[in-house]
Amino acid sequence: xxxxxxxxxxxxxxxxxxxxxEGPLLVLAGAGSGxxxxxTTRAAYLLHTGIQSGSVLAVTFTNKAAREMKxxxxxxxxxxxxxxxxxxxxxxxxxxxxxxxxxHLGYRKDFTxxxxxxxxxxxxxxxxxxxxxxxxxxxxxxxxxISRSKNNIIPLSDKExxxxxxxxxxxxxxxxxxxxxxxxxxxxxFDDLLLLTLKLFREHPAILENYMERFxxxxxxxxxxxxxxxxxxxxxxxxxxxxxxxxxxxxxxIYGWRGANLGNxxxxxxxFSGTVVVRLEQNYRSFGHILQAANxxxxxxxxxxxxxxWTAGGAGPRVNIxxxxxxxxxxxxxxDRISLIQYEKRISYEAFAIIYRANIFxxxxxxxxxxxxxPYSVVGGTSYFDRKEIKDLAAYLKIIANSRDDLSLLRAAxxxxxxxxxxxxxxxxDFAQDNSIxxxxxxxxxxxxxxxxxxxxxxxxxxxxxxxxxxxLFMKNxxxxxxxxxxxxxINYRDYIYELYKTPEAAVRRVENxxxxxxxxxxxxxxxxxxxxxxxxxxLALTDLLKExxxxxxxxxxxxxxxxxxxxxxxxxxxxxxxxxxxxxxKSMYLDGAVEEERRLFYVGITRAMKELYITYTDHRVKYGxxxxxxxxxFLDEIPDEVIKRLDGTEKTDPKQDEKDANDFFxxxxxxxxxxxxx
DNA sequence: CTGCCTGATCTTTTT
DNA sequence: GATCAGGCAG
Length: 679
Hints:
It is built from 31 helices and 17 strands. It has a 7-stranded parallel beta sheet. A 6-stranded parallel beta sheet has the order 3-2-6-7-1-8, sandwiched between helices. The longest helix is centred in the last third of the chain and has 24 residues, at 504-527. The chain binds a DNA duplex through helix 5, helix 10 and helix 28.
């Protein structure tokens, strides 16, 4: 594909964004306005104008976005493989920098990364150590506080108005201990990746200078989702040159609750003088009526940059609103409707999505779908619980890669059981402490520990031997997959699985996971340029291999939360449970600005729809076991009357309008089938 | 260790 | 009302 032809296909605004290469640029990209296309074309264009390969940096939040962009840029750069931008997530960009430079901060180079569950077990063990057993505090909330303070995003109101609450006090006590523990374990958490890179840049201007020289053109995707640390990092890297292009949509900022700072995008012009602002308002996704509904809703927000979506396409059918009796009725009605549309119009089930506020609402829809034997897939939820075997084996790999990771060592040492009980572990840990050595070294020297039984010390020594033997093998051997397989065989992990899971089906599934895990290592090894165990563990930490597989297998009707739906599109969308206390959520009503975020959520949901949009709510809904009356969401009133079609007899509809709607819909089936891949 | 009971909680999620 | 974590007894 030729870059000039690509540019010729853009609209005026998009072109403006692509061709404006020097100085700060803010691209306000409305939903469905071809945002990704602009970023990728811009990257390709920059390289085309002769800018050095590797000087163009595009930062995203998710691996999925990064992957998609790489693919598209690559296809535009056909024949010029030597020219390619750096496209990376915040986290993996920082990880790469730290791998190279972290010694300047007094850390070791061979660190490994802890995921959330490992952070939690570390915290639990710290709380145990300080004999803090107050069960009114959840470890999760302590971790949340620590993470917030690491990201420098605790709202002032927390510290000042409410004073220091109890959770804050305990978090303040635990934070330094947690930090210290990570350092001795030679481990970083996700927040550290960003935070330490920022620290590195601040404390070592020469290093920052290096990276500023390297990345001369910076682009940031989903800028409305950046937090304080990310903002500082980008600002520092952009330096005086300020060839910084940020792309985002303040109207789609829905992650304020986890630290995203809407101010970053709203104040961009102020922060970077001379900013050029380009608004992308032409929408290529949805019919006009859907956009009118979206515009009508979002314009009620005070904190936003004024803009409004439009389409060169048709108005399409009106937005359908249905009031159900209760939650079950709502689910039944939605599924009947899906069934009807799919039968009449011969569209595949993949064309439908049901969007809700909280994952718990998927339940009645799942049941109704199952009853009708309609295929579906639920996106999100916490399904990553059932991967114990992955965590077990990852613990082995982690202690092999990082001999200081005591926590992983403990997990590995007892799975499968190796006859090392509480007291033996206690003695080993004390010995390590007294001699200020790592736990693994203590295992090696278990023979020296007085009061440790011969059986226990034998076990410990044997385990330490196993780890060091495999450390060597992983270092030397080029076939890590094979080495790993022999490790799992040596520890009889398969037998352990069969022992653990009574039913054969469960055991078989686990064994499949085990096999899949080994395969993913082999696969990583053959794909990558210079594979290493550390590299594999990084991929594991920064990308969820299992989850990505699930995404691909996603079949049938999609059940999804507002949050997860961002960035996706579906021909026919149902938004369910549009009621007060659900949307806006009950807990958002007291928080300043939170209702506006709820409104954005609704806006995101509406703008997922390409051809048809259905909004449902109920008269009564079962809440906490009680059947309580429900009130339609205040946001419903914000949709202009003329684009609404009531399907519940609340309003008399003009039969002629109905016929017109049906015709519009029919006329667009072709488009619906052929336009899944926009842009 | 396992399984049962009790009580607390009931938004959203990526890396 | 359902679910899950943590406590406690066996």
